[in-house]
Design a protein that fits this description.
The protein is of the alpha/beta class. The protein is 40% helix and 14% strand. It starts with a helix and ends with a helix. Bound molecules: pyridoxal-5'-phosphate.
Length: 423
């Protein structure tokens, strides 16, 4: 539970930031309403990051940045393990925090379930999106000829395990082109629904397309799939800690994601959600003692052999940090900065924007290029002029530019100035 004083105290902002907080949130146990445009408040948030101040990071789409408290937890616990591993009594795997992989990680899974609005037993911890998706593709049974449908814009870590399914078991992997830029959510829905056939058994797609930041209308798509008895699995690599996720509302069958991009957790932290009614039938890929123990389905998949507890405890701190600010506030700030960038880019005739035309389908990721430049040239120009780091997306699509809570309006405006200079 969060109240206004908690946020300020946690972030060490007591004197600075009162103006950023809506007075109605005072002394209540509700998520505080922060002003997504208040420079004083967000400067204070920026100070919670160690990120070097002479450089500007615009690439959370690849990997995020740990707040200081997260990094400190990672170091402190690693130091504790190196110093005090002899304290380990081997009495209760679920209480002792020396190695992960045998512990049910209930406190962390509970926070993840709260973030996503689902049941704890439906959450298993994974290292990343790629292995979460692999557990699902590998764990469900398909017959030769069964079709797996996806889009033409999926990441290798999301789609490749389904290609294995095709090669190994004779399932058919099909992609459908959804456009870049995407025109509208109605059009994507229409394209995907028209691509369903009576043989479609699985629909796998990104909730947010990695290459363009397009937020797909997954609730509507999943409802259409459900009507046809199609198993739906969403790739949430880009959504967790970025846009708000409500799995009960989306009503997909499975969802995988990671915390090392937008939540600011250490690398190697992810999860897999599978609806309880399906999780009980999912074969495990990585098997240990619990492989066939259905008392806690999420634990069955979480028990994956020796792993690093420090990154999980640091993940817990990152989730606490995220909850303290409030997922809605984090989204609002990310979106505010992303929209400021896109609005500026739209004014420039030499810029081609590949993010969706419908602004409601965009948040913190923008994809664009300047006439006559490659992505690598644009990326290098940003670095050489201002030590700014968006990420090249190849010759045609230019750069993918991610905005997060540690970025500022000045950084966005400076980036727009550079685009103007180059165009
Ligand atoms: C949409 C999407 N899926 C999957 C992945 C792979 O994620 P991970 O490296 O966590 O396995 C990424 C990484 O950028 C991604 O953007």
């Amino acid at each position: 539970m969060t109240n206004r004083r908690d946020v300020l105290k946690y972030l060490g902002l007591t004197a600075l930031s009162v103006s950023a907080l809506n007075a109605s949130a005072a002394n209540t146990e509700v998520e505080p309403i922060l002003n997504s445009e208040d420079p004083l408040f967000w400067d204070s948030v920026r100070n919670q990051f160690m990120l070097s101040k002479d450089k500007v990071f615009f690439n959370c789409g690849t990997v995020g940045v740990m707040p200081k408290v997260v990094f400190e937890k990672l170091c402190d616990h690693s130091r504790y393990l190196a110093t005090h591993v002899a304290d380990w009594e081997y009495k209760d795997d679920n209480k002792e925090q020396f190695i992960s992989g045998y512990n049910n990680l209930l406190p962390i899974r509970t926070k993840v379930a709260k973030l996503l609005n689902c049941e704890v037993a439906e959450i298993a911890m994974t290292d990343n999106v790629t292995n979460g998706m692999s557990y699902i593709a590998n764990g469900i049974t398909l017959q030769p000829g069964d079709e797996i449908l996806t889009t033409d814009q999926e990441h290798g870590g999301g789609q490749s395990s389904w290609k294995v399914k095709e090669k190994r078991f004779g399932a058919v992997f099909k992609t459908v082109a959804i456009g870049k830029p995407i025109t509208s959510s109605a059009e994507v829905l229409d394209i995907i629904v028209k691509a369903f056939t009576p043989k479609t058994k699985v629909l796998m797609l990104s909730h947010m397309i990695s290459g363009s930041g397009a937020i797909l209308p997954v609730k509507e798509i999943c409802a259409e799939a459900k009507r046809r008895g199609i198993f739906t699995v969403l790739d949430g690599a880009q959504t967790i800690g970025h846009i708000k996720i409500d799995l009960k509302d989306i009503d997909c069958d499975a969802y995988v994601g990671c915390f090392h991009k937008w939540v600011g957790a250490p690398t190697g932290t992810g999860f897999m959600f599978v609806k309880a009614m399906h999780m009980k039938d999912l074969w495990t890929t990585v098997a240990s003692y619990r492989w066939d123990d259905h008392a806690d389905e999420g634990f069955r998949f979480t028990q994956r052999g020796t792993g690093n507890f420090a990154i999980l405890l640091a993940l817990e701190v990152a989730l606490d940090f995220h909850f303290q600010l409030g997922p809605d506030n984090v989204y609002a700030r990310i979106k505010f900065l992303g929209e400021r960038l896109r609005n500026g880019l739209r004014q420039n005739k030499k810029v081609k924007l590949f993010s969706p035309k419908e602004e409601a389908m965009c948040a913190g990721i923008s994809l664009y290029n300047i006439d006559g430049l490659t992505g690598a040239q644009l990326q290098d120009a940003y670095w050489n002029k201002a030590k700014m780091r968006p990420r090249s997306q190849g010759d045609i699509f230019g750069v993918r530019h991610s905005t997060h809570i540690f970025n500022s309006t000045q950084e966005i405006d400076r980036a727009l100035k550079i685009v103007e200079e180059l165009s």
